Amino acid sequence: MAFPNNAMLRALFLLVLVCAAHAGGKAKESSSTPAEGGGGSCDGGTCDITKMGATAGGKTDSTKAVQEAWTSACGGTGKQKIMIPKGDFLVGPLNFTGPCKGDVTIQLDGNLLASTDLSQYKANWIEIMRVENLVITGKGTLDGQGPAVWSKNSCAKKYDCKILPNSLVLDFVNNSEVSGITLLNSKFFHMNVFQCKDIVIKDVTVTAPGDSPNTDGIHMGDSSGVSITNTVIGVGDDCISIGPGTTKVNITGVTCGPGHGISIGSLGRYKDEKDVTDITVKDCTLKKSTNGVRIKAYEDAKSVLTASKIHYENIKMEDAANPIIIDMKYCPNKICTATGGSKVTVKDVSFKNITGTSSTPEAVSLLCTDKIPCSGVTMDNVNIEYSGKNNKTMAVCKNAKGSATGCLKELACL
C-alpha cells in the first residue's frame, strides 16, 4: 500500500526514469530527420491498425501493427490519423518518436491492453518523443493491466527499487492534446509529461484502486503551459503531481479521489532542480483523498529553488485528510536527514474559498522551516470542518507568514 509520504518518492523516481528513457531515445535518433514512411500502408492518411495486422480479442500481440501505423502516419505529410477501432488489442512497448512530417491524431475508440510480461519493457509502455501538434482522443482505454504485476513493486520498502513501466509518457512534446480517453490500472504512473510545452489534457478519466502502488494519475516535470480540465482521477498515489521546473499550469474542474491529492513536489531531492511558479488550481473537488492541496519539499534539499505564485481557489473538500498542507519537512521512508536546513523557498501562496469537510482534525497544516519561513501565504474564506467526533477542527502553522480573512476562526493561524 502506498502511504502519503511515499507519493513524492515515486514522482522523483519517475523523473530519473524518464531522463534515462530520453537518453536512450536520443541515442537512437542522433539526427532530427522525420520518421520515414509516407502512409503507403494507410488509406488516404488514415492508418487503421486492423488493416495493418492488428487482431482484436486481447490475446494476439498487435505491437508490430500499431508501431507500423505510427511509422506510416508520422512519415506522411498533412493530416494523418491512426485508427484504433473498438475491440481489445494486446500490445507491448511502443515508441512513437518524431519529428513527424505532418500532424498526427491517434483516434482511440478501442482498448489497448499492455503486455504483462515485464521482460519486454526497457522503460515505459507508450512513449511519445519529440512530436508537435499531436492529438490523442476518443472514448477508448489504455489499460496497463497493473494488477498482474503490482506485487513486483518494492518501492514502498526500499528507495533503489526497480521501476515498473509507466503507461503514457510524453517527452519533448509540444502544442498537443489528450482528450476523452481513459487510463486504467497503470503498472506505475498513468501519465507523465516531461519537458513539454503547451499541453492540454481534458475530459480524461484515470482509474486505479486506492491501494495500488505508485499509480500516480498525471505527473509533470520541467514543463510549461500544461492545462488539465474536467478530468476525473482516482488512483493509489497523487492524483496530480507537479515536479520541479514546472511553470504556467492551470488545473480546473478536476475531481480527485481516492488518491494522495493534488501535489506540488516533492522539491529538492536532487541537485540542479528548477523553480516551480505560476500554478493555479481552481474549481476542483477532493473526495476522501489522503491529502487535499499540498506543497512538499525535503528538509535536507539538495537544490536551491523557489515555489511561488501558487493559487488555489474554489476547492471543495469531501472528507479529505490534510485538506491544506505545506510540508517543508517531507521525508519519505526516512531517507533524509532532519537538519532543518531546507534550501527551498515557498512564497506567494493563496488559498481562496476552500470549503467542506476534513477527515482529520488538522484541516490546515503549514509546516515551514525556521531558516526559510514560508512568506506571502494568504487564506481567504477557508472554512473546512472536521467531520469526526471528539476532536475539534484545528490548524497548525509553523514559520508561516501571511494573513487570514473570513476564515473559520480555528483555522486563522497566520
TrEMBL record:
Instruction: Identify the domain of life.
Output: Eukaryota
What SMART domains does this protein's entry cite? PbH1
The subcellular location is:
Secreted, Cell wall
Q: What residue range is the signal peptide?
A: 1-23
**PROSITE patterns in the cross-refs:** POLYGALACTURONASE
Matching entries from Pfam families are given as: Glyco_hydro_28 (PF00295)
Q: Does the keyword Secreted apply?
A: yes
- Molecular function in Gene Ontology: galacturan 1,4-alpha-galacturonidase activity; polygalacturonase activity
Q: Which reaction does it catalyse?
A: [(1->4)-alpha-D-galacturonosyl](n) + H2O = alpha-D-galacturonate + [(1->4)-alpha-D-galacturonosyl](n-1)
Keywords annotated in UniProt? Cell wall, Cell wall biogenesis/degradation, Disulfide bond, Glycoprotein, Glycosidase, Hydrolase, Repeat, Secreted, Signal
**Major localization listed first in the record, in broad terms:** secreted
Similarity field:
Belongs to the glycosyl hydrolase 28 family.
Q: So what does this one do?
A: May function in depolymerizing pectin during pollen development, germination, and tube growth. Acts as an exo-polygalacturonase.
Q: What is this protein called?
A: Exopolygalacturonase
